[in-house]
Amino acid sequence: MQICSTKGAIRDVVRDWKRNGETVGLVPTMGFLHEGHLSLVRRAKAECDRVVVSVFVNPTQFGPNEDLETYPRDEQRDLRLLEAEGVDAVFMPDVDEMYAGVGDTHVEVPGLSGILQGALRPGHFRGVATVVTKLFNIVGPDKAVFGEKDYQQLAMIRQMVNDLDMSVEVIGNPTVREPDGLAMSSRNVRLSPDHRAQAVALNRSLKAAQDCALSTSDLTEIDRVIRAALAKAPDAEVRSVDIRDAKTLAELSGNLVADAVVLLVVRFGPVVLIDQKVISPSHPAP
Ligand code: PAF
Q: For the domain 2-173, what is the CATH code?
């Protein structure tokens, strides 16, 4: 496995593969890898001849009061896990390598980056869109794999790739969960044991939403059922519950007539967790 800390080094590696006609898959990560990331790696391996994983905690997607300083990191462990998965190259730049000498050019996807989590985290999606564009330009992948867990991020990246005619295929990979249903996240290790136990409420509330949708299409009732399930976790501070069009993330009202995505942002102490599930109506509109 080749470990590249500079843009030039990873470009050289990829150029050699492409000269041999090999296809390249990219899995962008911020490290502290878990089974969810490894499932993205396996998907990329299944889709492409060569796989590059980027490990970079991108400062521009963290707000001033967010967890950049405490974001968990363990580069040596990440490298061991990626080697065991048979990854071909890891791109692991430092902040200077990515941003030194860079001006204020950025990529913004206004419609999707200002709503939902984007409204709660101003500037976050602009930071993501910009760094993902940089990674695409540096690595030049044929395909890039992202987790469906970050549903809004995935929707925004798809929109950006479409709008800017980027020649990369974006693949969404299903959320990987702990045995009790908690979506895997690098932030889970920062939950106290008590909050970790309570955090199962997120997945339970999503399941309750789907069950509820089988008996009613009333979105207000589905929302009520989700919030009631979350309320069973006494320390859960519900920052948002949204039921949106599964494709466009447009607001919905009235009845569930087509697939919708339930998007949750819930805080336990200092840790903000997100989760999502696409729910289907029992009687879709014809
Ligand atoms: O999903 C993430 O880990 C990050 O937002 C990403 C896509 C690697 C960009 O920094």
A: 3.40.50.620
Assign 139 a pLDDT band (cuts: 50, 70, 90).
very high
| 30 Cβ closer than 6 Å to some ligand 1 atom | yes
**Structural domain boundaries of the chain?**
2-173, 186-278
What is d(CA 207, CA 180) in angstroms, rounded to the nearest whole number?
13
Ligand 1 pocket, 150 CB below 6 A? yes
pTM of the model: 0.91
Give the per-residue pLDDT at 199.
98
d(CA 31, ligand 1 centre) in Å = 9
Same fold, 2-173 and 186-278: no
Question: Rounded to an integer, what distance in angstroms lies between the CA atom of residue 10 and that of residue 78?
Answer: 18
| CA 213, chain centre distance (Å) | 25
29 lines ligand 1 (CB under 6 A): yes
Report how far ligand 1's centroid is from the alpha carbon of 146 (Å).
8
Q: What's the rounded mean pLDDT across residues 49-65?
A: 96
pLDDT of residue 284 exceeding 90? no
Q: Which CATH number fits domain 186-278: 2.30.30.30, 1.10.3720.10, 3.30.1300.10, 3.40.50.10700?
A: 3.30.1300.10
191 phi and psi angles, rounded to 5 deg: -75, 140
DSSP helix/strand/coil, 149: coil
Active site residue 37: yes
Token pair 């607001």 in the structure block, residue: 251
Closest ligand 1 atom to Cα of 30: 3
**Cα(193) to centroid(ligand 1), Å:** 26
List the beta strands (DSSP E) in 20-105. 24-29, 50-55, 89-91
